[in-house]
Amino acid sequence: MSIHRSLSSSSDESSASSASSASSSSSSSSVKLSSSSSLIEEDNSPIFDVSVSVNGKQQANKKPGQQITDDEEDDDDEDEDFVMSEVVRAKLSFHEDEEEESSCTLGEPPSLQPPQPPPAQQEAETTPPQQQYTTLTALKCHALYKIQEKIRSGGFGDVYKGVRKIDHAPIAIKIIRKDKINSWTLNNENVYIPMEIDLMYRVSECPGCIKILDYIERHDRYMIVMERPDKVIDLWDFINNRGPLNEQLAKVFLKKIIMTVLEMKANGVIHRDIKDENILVDLNTLELKLIDFGAGTHYTNEYLTDFQGTRVYSPPEWILYNRYSGDEATVWSLGVLLYNMIYGDIPFENDEEIVNCKLDFNKFKKMQTINNSGRQNNQTSNYYNSTANRCTCCSTLSSSSCCCSDVNDLIKSCLNFDPNKRIQLDNILEHAWFNDLRTN
User: Fold this and answer.
1) Which residues form the catalytic set?
2) Which residues pair with 280 in a beta bridge?
3) Is residue 266 classed exposed, middle or buried when 0-12, 13-18 and 19+ CB atoms within 10 A define those classes?
4) Average pLDDT over residues 2-20
5) How many degrees, rounded to 5, is the angle at CA 172 between CA 168 and CA 176?
6) E strands, 295-345, where?
7) What pLDDT shows up at residue 218?
């Protein structure tokens, strides 16, 4: 049996019964613990080692367009309450039948093979289904994974650093409350699961997407277990630390992202939240991984009438008419991302600017960035002042304010107000800006 097809938790009646007879069940529980020592290692550490030290930004250094809900602090408190409640829940539910105990074997690591995706024509549900679900008990979850500090927080859930105990593989665990899941779908066994989980299994073989390893359903939330690459930062931090990218690196990055987007499309997935925060950069190899599929959906040629991504990356047709084509909205977000890589900032800050669609190719003049200590960012300054980066025909930066540059032409082609006149997703890599990559 695979790990994510887990055992059923004890019913409320069983928990109440065991609580009322705690004195008699404590001895039997100790016997069962000793008989199950091969299944669950003895560990005096708490169920989850969560010393929450948020690895985020201070308010003065907040990422543009970052999704933070109004009750984020309350959610953090609830997550910590959830972690502590698992200890109590484990004690009440551990006296499960011997047959159920023996069916959860840990001899092999969780299977990485994804299940078959649900039928493409299956419509997504927007409300959580009312049905029974399977779940791992807290002690069995503890036997599989060790959860450590929080490394990421956002509108669709919190991500924790962790380790898979069987082989000590580094993992990331995303915890999503059920009342915050906006889209559900049926899997191949006609069981409702969050759309995000289904999409991740569909793209699990795409090298440019973060890989899902397992998922666990709890009574009020899902835990998504993912690979955790070593020495990575998101693209927002990469740009913030190093300044705007030179054209060659931006070109390589955008090509990788577009190839990943096209591969996802072939697997029936549209991400709908492509931005610098959702792209991990491997600092050793400069390979990229697309993460956070919480805003995604199944690919369709029909117009979409809901949008859960980042507002400043949304196209003007969504702002004005609340509808958009998946490919055309993806091209728009890629244009915003390219502008961000070249100029170090997004082109539009609000709905009015998105609808006006006026691109400022002189924005580099405003970006002589000052860090918190009051010193100029020398790396960014050197880039702007270097004569090697200047256009020969107009003496301006070839990758910034020169209106004749190929990169600015591609940005304008992606950020055309009229979606019918935007460059097509399948044709972006044919643009003249990529000519040198095709010849090398």
Assistant:
1) 273
2) 234, 289
3) exposed
4) 39
5) 140
6) 297-298
7) 85
* CA dist., res. 412 & res. 402, Å (int): 13
* Cα separation, 296 vs 290, whole angstroms: 12
**Res. 104: pLDDT tops 50:** no
Is 419 in contact with 317 (CB distance < 8 Å)? yes
Summary mean pLDDT of the chain: 73
Strand partners, 281: 233, 288
Tokens 């995303």 belong to 174
Write the DSSP symbol of residue 247: H
Q: Classify each residue of 139-160 as buried b or exposed e, where b means 16 or more C-beta atoms within 10 Å of its C-beta.
A: bbbbbbbbbbebbbbbbbbbbb
Nearest alpha-carbon partner for 340 in 231, 424, 234: 234
Number of residues that make up the chain? 440
The DSSP line for 269-296 is: EE-S--SGGGEEEETTT--EEE---TT-
Q: Is the pLDDT of residue 316 over 90?
A: yes
The half-sphere exposure of 309 on its side-chain side, counting CA atoms within 13 A, is 28
The secondary structure of residue 48, as a DSSP letter, is: S
Query: 77-93 burial string, b = 16+ CB within 10 Å, else e?
Result: eebeebbeebeebbbbb
Q: What percent of the chain clears pLDDT 70, i.e. is strictly above it?
A: 58
Please give the radius of gyration of the chain, using alpha carbons only, rounded to the nearest integer.
Answer: 25
Tell me what pLDDT residue 220 has.
Answer: 86
For helices 247-266 and 326-343, give the axis angle rounded to 10 degrees: 160
Do residues 135 and 218 make contact, with C-beta atoms less than 8 angstroms apart?
yes
CA distances from 184 to 67, 123, 217, 355 (A): 21, 9, 14, 32
In sequence order, what are the beta bridge partners of 355? none
pLDDT band at 343 (very low <50, low <70, confident <90, very high): very high
Q: Tell me the residue type at 395.
A: S
How does DSSP classify residue 344? Answer: S
In sign, the C-alpha dihedral spanning 166, 171, 176, 181 is negative
> What are the φ/ψ torsions at residue 296 (nearest 5 degrees)?
-80, 175
Distances (CA, A) of 206 to 192, 274, 276: 24, 16, 19
H or E segment to which residue 298 belongs:
strand 297-298
Asked if 151 and 292 count as a contact pair (C-beta separation under 8 A), the reply is no
Q: How far is CA 78 from the centre of its chain?
A: 21
- Per the model's pLDDT, the better-predicted residue between 160 and 33 turns out to be 160
Query: How far does the chain reach from its first CA to its final CA, in angstroms?
Result: 48
pTM of the model: 0.67
Cβ atoms of 104 and 144 closer than 8 Å: no
The answer to whether 166 and 104 are in contact (CB under 8 A) is no
